[in-house]
Amino acid sequence: MDIVQPAYMKSTFGLDIYYEHYPNEGKKTLILIHGLFSSTFSYRKLIPLLKQDFNLIAIDLPPFGQSEKSNTFIYSYRNMGKIIIELAGYLQIQHAILVGHSMGGQIALYAATERPDLFEKAVLLCSSGYLNKSKRSLVYSTYIPYFYLYLKRKLLKQGIMKNLTAVVHDHSIIDQEMVDGYLKPFSDDQIFRGIFRLIRHREGDLTSDVLKKMETPVLLIWGEEDRIVPIQIGERLHKDLPNSTLHALKKTGHLIPEENPVFVSDQIGHFSLS
User: Which residues form a coiled coil (predicted)?
Assistant: First the structure.
């Protein structure tokens, strides 16, 4: 039960998808979905707290982490949601609870609307919401040869510390392991090529009209000091999702799985097992 089983699934899109499985027979299944510029690494503090009580799966969405970085895959939220559905089928899971952070929360919603019979509940951690499709001018820029390298250099010039201090409220928790873990994606040109394709293909977040029709129970957990996806987004999601509960944490920013893992794991446990 305590040993991770890292593996790959060949999706119907032709991509090798990396995932980690912490098997726990007879327990409910949680599928952990990370956000932009992240990977399974972002759940490193939650996994030890959850794996004793759940059959736990963490996935690297393409083009992030150890999953394949394709130059032909359509990086839409809907397609990423379908990969989550495929992984559940691949592992012969009949019912699961989705946990999504930031962009991963929106992908969890896409998967839940596609297969409400499969995903019985969802937990959204500082989830993205109400973002429109990328502006046409931005989409056009992604076709400029090697423009992805400009984006990479710009982000590297800002520095990983500046990026981390923007997503974490208490800067004292930033250590070398965190710096190394979140710096890793910035060394891979293929990730930036994939992000450019994501900018082209991202269809936008689910609308209020769609959210209001969802019957899936949803737990929303937010940091009141979130500067990336402000608490107002969580409040709006809570208003639109008819079967939702919202918890707001003081002195907590956007990287909520890192900043307050004990509270988050406790709330996931209560919500999932009730």
Answer: none
